[in-house]
Amino acid sequence: MKTHVFNASPVVRLVLAAELLLALAAVAGADLVPTVPLPMLLLYAAVGGLLLVAVVVLAAVASLTVSQFVLRHGGTDAQWFWFRSEPPGLVELRRQTKALAARSGREPS
């Protein structure tokens, strides 16, 4: 089994770039809320950016976990939950595969 090494450098760079863009937007938008001091506004932007990244990561992990569960339990594709049944072409293809396997005397894969 191949092991994967996680390289945090691109992730750190991406988060840092996003935070710097948020800081730039906060400085540019500081005139919209003149009663809030700039350091507090920068803190709000940083915390909001980190929360946004955390929510996106959690949503991606949850979505991928559900998709893996569906595929491991015999589903064709998790996106097909939107429809009533399998695509007609796939149903026909499975029927043909079973018939071909029955004629050759082996189990379909």
Can you give a write-up of this model?
This protein has 109 residues and is mostly helical. It has helices at 9-28, 38-72, 88-104. Helix content is 66%, strand content 0%. Helix 1 crosses helix 2. The longest helix is centred in the middle third of the chain and has 35 residues, at 38-72.
Gist of the model:
The chain has 109 residues and is mainly alpha-helical.
N→C terminal distance: 23 Å
Number of helices: 3
- Contiguous runs where pLDDT drops below 50 for at least 5 residues: none
* Order of H and E elements: HHH
What profile does the largest beta sheet have? none
Outline type = elongated
Rounded mean pLDDT is 83
Question: Percent range for helical residues?
Answer: 55-70%
- How many strand segments? 0
Radius of gyration: 25 Å
Strand content: under 5%
Briefly note the structural class of the backbone.
Answer: mainly alpha
Which helices and strands occur, and which strands form pairs?
Blueprint: H1 9-28, H2 38-72, H3 88-104
Helix pairs in contact: 1-2
Output the keywords.
109 residues; mainly alpha
